[in-house]
Amino acid sequence: MPEALRIAIRKFEGFERAIQQQWADFAQTTGCSLELEFESLDLNPLVNALFTRQGLRNGDFDIAFIVTDWIADAVASGALLDLAPFMRERPVDGYPEAWPASLTRFQEIDGAIYGLPYHDGPECLIYRKDIFDDPHHKQKYRERTGEPLEPPTTWDAFESIARFFTHPENDEYGTLFAAFPDGHNTVYDFCIQLWSRGGELHDAEGRPTIATQPAIEGLDFYRRLLNDRSVTPPGLEEVDSVKSGELFTSGKIAMMVNWFGFAALCEQPDSPVRGKVGVAPVPAAGGAESASLNVYWVLGVGSGSRHATAACDFIRHCCTPAMDRITSLEGGIGCRKSTWHDPEINDLIPFYGQLDVLHQSARELPRSQQLPALIHIIDRAVHRAIATGDPTETILRYAQAEADGIRL
Fold it and tell me: Which of 94, 123, 150, 209 could bridge across to 98 with cysteines, CB 3.0–4.6 Å?
């Protein structure tokens, strides 16, 4: 039986289709005699297979989808191969200039490179272009507020517009948030509120700073809107990011801050809002600049791979312009600048070219093995804010005390 190259894929049919096409092209181009085997896994099973069971170190997988949240632990545990020596001998086409710095810096540590960008899509404002452009809505909003109806650039305008578009009797709401307690989206929302109000997650020494005035203002805003039925729908504590995207695509929501990939999914042929969606930078407050959260997926090679050369060759192949296009055409979000401005892709998804603008304000969470501990603390604080009437400042000062031993 022919030997196989084994890949652990983040479960998503678009990734599966893309990898199979990219492998077929690779095998035809290079004459590689290995067969392709892949296993598609949801997030928790993927973590278990790669790290708990050490699948990258023991050779269970040659290649894996690695999200940037895992990079610090993966490197510290010796799970990933340093690609830099291979890339010096066989340079990756256009690297790094063909990508924005926001997609190459996180996996580069002390001159080592632990993965190549495969799928991204930072958080952004996603809005219903058709209802924002409707002359009747524009007139009514100006009569009510004295302001023009346009994609909001401030959080005050975001709230005002969300209230304007909320009609619970018609099951229509101005916005929504993904508040399911999975340790991800509420933390991401907290960071976006913090950064877009001029705050920081930690100081210069890596000490968490989560009880500052921007943090208090941001969490207060978030909890108020999430619990206000004149702005958001009920039951958001059961809504994760995927469900929030589905609700938006159903046509019930006027706007949301969410991953760019959900905006792209709105352009699928069977989408009720196809051709009706636009994207813009995340709003800000207090004179601060817009800030987007960037969490992305790289292809990494396992340190225990028995086919390391072929694995490196294949992920190099996946990063070529033609293969990056395939990632986008199959439902992922390609990472090369050339893909973002590709005419065919922009015909299918008219706002794809705006990824350049969105990445200008893209930020990542700290690359630290202690980050998961801080994430759990923030997640608990946000859900205490959602579920209780405790003062926001009290909640965050308690969280700050819990985090005092952490250094990022």
Answer: 94
Task: List pLDDT tens digits, range 367-408.
Answer: 999 999 999 999 999 999 999 999 999 999 999 999 999 999
- Name the β-bridge partners of 35: 4
Coil/strand/helix, residue 381: helix
Give dist(CA 241, CA 250) in Å, integer. 14
pLDDT tens for 133-150 read 999 999 999 999 999 999
Pairing of strands 4-10, 63-67: parallel
Domains (ranges, CATH) in the chain? 4-114+297-334 (3.40.190.10), 123-293+367-402 (3.40.190.10)
Calpha distance 269→267 (Å, rounded): 6
What is the Cα–Cα distance from 398 to 53, expressed in whole angstroms? 35
Backbone torsions φ then ψ of 157, nearest 5 degrees: -65, -35
Helix (H, G, I), strand (E, B) or coil at 391: coil
Residue 1 pLDDT more than 60? Answer: no
Measured CA to CA, the distance from residue 81 to residue 234 in angstroms comes to 46
Q: Please report the DSSP string for 246-276 in residue order.
A: HHHHTT-BSEEEEEHHHHHHTTSTT-TTTT-
pTM above 0.85, yes or no: yes
Give the integer Cα–Cα distance in Å for 325 and 344.
10
